RNA sequence: CGGGGUGUAGUUCAGAUGGCUAGAACGCUUGCAUGGGGUGCAAGAGGUCGCUCGUUCAAGUCGAGUCACCCCGACCA
């Protein structure tokens, strides 16, 4: 862990962002350009996001599934606009085997192991999913079909930034198929509202929604709607999209169903997604010059208890602090008890502030005499002495 | 894809005009003290100086090539 300070926002907003990611131990650069390692603390935030958003997605009648990482090149090429939009950022698998290199220096691609048809590593999964959908859907009774998946995708970006734009990222992609254009459009807009509600209620972010311009819309879509949040530097960040695909993909993937009148018809489709970019939005919107600030709803650690003791009162303080821990554990989960005794209290205060733990509780012999504990909120950094008898009420609504 | 920059210890870096038996800070290990806002002292571990070739008595340092990464712009979740 780095021990250096954090560049103030005012001085260099971009560097401040990178510092927060580093000092809060959310992610670090990997040996692969543009692809980051999401560290345990950062991944825990993603898991919290997933957990709540997945619940909301399923509430909309979606079922989760998994489609392959590899997409045959021929599938990918079918929708003209789609291929045009993604062609320049695709990673392609051309071989399936390595061999020892002739000079003995290592391994090289085995030229005899060339694939007959190259495979595209999914930049998004419309094509591979819709090929499958064409076999799943035959009747109006099969509609609507609502499928979601939580996966990684690869887009070979020219320039990358942690969480905001990485060459591989994690996301959910929802794909729905409907009988009518109206129903499909309704889905597109309702999902947009779901994202907006999620942003407000879980991420504490206010967002704007709107239709994207012709040049900004998803490759192959009729229309794209975006969810945008305002960042501290005054720029807006698009973190979610919902696409009205019309019948564009249905026609090229030959998804057809027999309607109630017995006629063969192409269905109407929607696709929508949010990614690990949301973590970038979280960082940029709430954090300050002291480090990360997280809404309790997604914080991996909601409360940290720091016992403060000297050699003489160590046992008393630890016992008392554990009592507080047990009391609070009945109310909430994810409490960290920081009794590492090779670190000073000041170091710990700083460390948990950098990581954005919403509530810090300090307990020393002084507090024990008064039957109190010091509580510090991460967002405002306000300190308050709270009586032990009522302490669980304080954290109840986290 | 255009522009700029950097490769030396786990990390961030210093090593003008070649003389290095390669340093610092932080981190790490051990011990003692300390403990209410990044603790102090002591001892210790840790490096084929990105890679290749060249110039030279001598290359971290100079030259050529090569690979990689970072940053700034245009594009995207």
Output mean pLDDT.
Answer: 92
Poorly predicted regions are: none
**Individual helix count:** 12
In total, how many beta strands?
A: 21
N-end to C-end Cα span: 28 Å
Compute the gyration radius: what is it? 25 Å
Strand order of the largest sheet: 3-9-10-16-13-12-11
Question: Structural class of the secondary structure composition?
Answer: alpha+beta
How many strands, what sense, and barrel or not for the largest sheet?
Answer: 7 strands, mixed
Strand content: 25-35%
Shape: globular
Q: Which bin fits the share of residues in helices?
A: 25-40%
Task: Give an overview in words.
- The chain is an alpha+beta fold and 398 residues long.
- The chain is 32% helix and 28% strand.
- The protein contains twelve helices and 21 strands.
- It has helices spanning 13-23, 40-59, 73-76, 80-86, 126-136, 181-201, 248-252, 277-286, 314-329, 345-354, 365-370, 391-395, and strands at residues 27-29, 36-38, 63-64, 70-72, 92-95, 98-100, 107-109, 114-121, 145-154, 168-178, 207-211, 223-230, 236-246, 257-258, 264-265, 268-275, 303-308, 335-337, 359-364, 372-377, 383-387.
- The strands form six sheets. A seven-stranded mixed β-sheet has the order 3-9-10-16-13-12-11. A five-stranded mixed β-sheet has the order 18-17-19-20-21, with helices on both faces.
- Strand 6 (98-100) and strand 7 form a beta hairpin.
- It is globular.
- The model has no long low-confidence stretch (mean pLDDT 92).
């Amino acid at each position: 862990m780095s021990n250096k300070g954090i560049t103030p926002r005012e001085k260099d907003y971009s560097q401040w962002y990178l510092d927060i990611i580093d000092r809060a131990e959310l992610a670090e650069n990997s040996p692969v350009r543009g692809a980051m390692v999401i560290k345990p603390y950062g991944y825990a935030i993603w898991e919290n996001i997933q957990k709540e958003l997945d619940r909301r997605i399923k509430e909309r009648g979606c079922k989760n599934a998994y489609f392959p990482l590899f997409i045959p090149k021929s599938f990918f090429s079918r929708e003209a606009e789609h291929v045009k939009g993604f062609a320049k950022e695709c990673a392609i698998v051309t071989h399936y085997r390595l061999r020892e290199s002739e000079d003995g220096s290592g391994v090289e691609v085995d030229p005899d192991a060339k694939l007959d048809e190259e495979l595209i590593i999914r930049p998004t999964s419309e094509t591979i999913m819709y090929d499958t959908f064409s076999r799943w859907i035959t009747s109006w009774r099969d509609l609507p079909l609502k499928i979601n998946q939580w996966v990684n995708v690869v887009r070979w970006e020219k320039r990358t930034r942690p969480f905001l734009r990485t060459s591989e990222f994690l996301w959910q992609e929802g794909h729905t198929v409907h009988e009518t254009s109206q129903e499909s459009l309704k889905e597109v807009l309702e999902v947009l509202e779901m994202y907006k509600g999620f942003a407000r209620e879980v991420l504490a972010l206010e967002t704007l929604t709107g239709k994207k311009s012709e040049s900004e819309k998803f490759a192959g879509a009729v229309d794209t709607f975006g969810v945008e949040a305002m960042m501290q530097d005054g720029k807006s960040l698009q973190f979610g999209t919902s696409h009205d695909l019309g019948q564009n993909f249905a026609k090229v993937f030959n998804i057809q169903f027999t309607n109630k009148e017995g006629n063969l018809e192409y269905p109407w489709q929607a696709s929508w997604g949010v990614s690990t970019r949301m973590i970038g939005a979280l960082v940029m919107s709430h954090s300050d010059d002291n480090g990360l600030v997280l809404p309790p709803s997604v914080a991996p650690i909601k409360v940290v208890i720091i016992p403060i003791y000297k050699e003489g009162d160590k046992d008393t303080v630890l016992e008392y602090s554990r009592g507080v821990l047990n009391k609070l554990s009945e109310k909430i989960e994810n409490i960290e008890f920081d009794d590492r005794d090779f670190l000073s209290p000041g170091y710990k205060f700083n460390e948990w502030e950098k990581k954005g733990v919403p509530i810090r509780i300090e307990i020393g012999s002084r507090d024990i005499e008064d039957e109190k504990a010091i509580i510090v909120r991460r967002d405002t950094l306000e300190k308050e002495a709270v009586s032990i008898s009522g302490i669980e009420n304080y954290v109840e609504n986290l």
